[in-house]
Design a protein that fits this description.
This protein is α/β, with parallel strands linked by helices and 312 residues long. It has 2 domains: 132 residues, Udp-n-acetylmuramoylalanyl-d-glutamate--2,6- Diaminopimelate Ligase, Chain: A, domain 1 (3-Layer(aba) Sandwich); 160 residues, P-loop containing nucleotide triphosphate hydrolases (Rossmann fold, 3-Layer(aba) Sandwich). 34% of the residues lie in helices and 27% in strands. It has 9 helices and 19 strands. The protein has a 6-stranded mixed sheet with strand order 11-9-10-17-19-18. A 5-stranded mixed sheet has the order 2-7-6-5-4. A 4-stranded antiparallel sheet has the order 8-12-13-16, with no helix packed on it. A hairpin with a 5-residue loop joins β12 and β13.
């Protein structure tokens, strides 16, 4: 998903120490790739493998090389660069843009930004920010907890008891990530990252009680800013058709990622916090290669198979 130079400037003005020095009217040009490009070869006139869809970074090496050229050569090389329809230029180390760059930026309608950061640091920070801004994103109904390092998303109908279950888990020493609404994004590693919106972060709504501020009541250890999603738990009213063995695991696809999913029936007298806690710990064991349901199933099959052999 492409983003504009304007969006990069808005999101990274503070983090990347970015300011506009030219082409303010052309900030809507799109960045098609999250990687940066340092146009060293392009400034020598070699454009065969030039990454023209990337943001172009001018650091100490680029400026030093341009200084070694005569004015006519420098103007020719810069013009060749701008003719490639680049989306934008960032000048690092707070260096001043030359008059040639400013004139060409207006002529070819290319925004020029400046950062006070060292070039390598800027490239690293900007790449991470661009990957974050271009990653698939959505907002999902549910309460997210972190239980022993396992990110758990509790889903269910309103009033089913998601927040009450989460509250009981917090009292057991586990951490709240978000209540009722969870924002999620796919990471570059193909995982799902969960967090709460800025408005509702650290707060919970408990029916009959109202809004509570979790860290004030339970301490800062009771909250997490974000967590990776490892397990989805659907809380539902019992139907009588629930899986009793767990031999055939279920999953749900979120933002193109397959996440393990289990359905827990909510009934009178059931300690849902305890069951969710065990489900999270069992998921952790599965990730370590220990699947209790599969092991029991294998034992039963082996016993039946061996019994047939002896009887035969």
């Amino acid at each position: 998903m492409a983003i504009t130079v304007r969006r990069l400037l808005e999101e990274g003005a503070d983090q990347l120490a970015l300011t506009v020095v030219a082409g303010e009217n052309y900030l809507d040009r799109k960045l098609q790739e999250t990687a940066m490009n340092r146009p060293g070869l392009a400034l020598t006139g070699f454009f065969q493998y030039f990454a023209n869809q990337r943001l172009q970074i001018f650091g100490l090496a680029e400026f030093t090389y341009l200084k070694s050229l005569s004015h006519s050569e420098k103007l020719e090389r810069l013009k060749g660069l701008f003719e490639q329809q680049i989306p934008g230029i960032v000048i690092t180390r707070n260096r001043k843009a030359s008059d040639d760059i400013l004139k060409l930026a207006e002529e070819y309608k290319v925004p020029v930004l400046r950062s006070a950061m060292v070039t390598m640091n800027f490239v690293n920070e900007c790449t991470v920010l661009l990957e974050k801004l271009t990653a698939p994103y959505m907002r999902i109904q549910g309460t997210t907890m972190e239980i022993m390092g396992i990110g758990v998303l509790l889903r269910g109908d309103p009033g089913i008891g998601k927040s009450e279950t989460a509250l009981a888990l917090i009292e057991r020493g586990y951490s709240l990530v978000s209540d009722d609404v969870t924002e999620i994004r796919q990471t570059s590693r193909g995982r799902i990252m969960c967090w709460a919106s800025e408005v509702t972060r650290y707060h919970m709504e408990i029916r009959g009680l109202g809004i509570i501020h979790v860290p004030s009541l339970f301490g800062v250890a009771a909250i997490r800013r974000r967590t990776e999603l490892d397990l989805v738990i659907d809380l539902k009213h019992p139907t009588g058709n629930e899986d009793r063995t767990g031999v055939q695991p279920e999953s749900v696809v979120i933002l193109g990622c397959e996440v393990p999913c289990i359905t827990l029936p909510v009934g009178s007298g059931r300690d849902m916090a305890n069951i969710v806690e065990v489900a999270a710990l069992n998921q952790k064991l599965k990730e370590l290669g220990h699947d209790a349901a599969k092991e029991l199933d294998d034992k039963i099959i082996n016993r039946l198979t061996n019994g047939r052999v002896r009887n035969g």
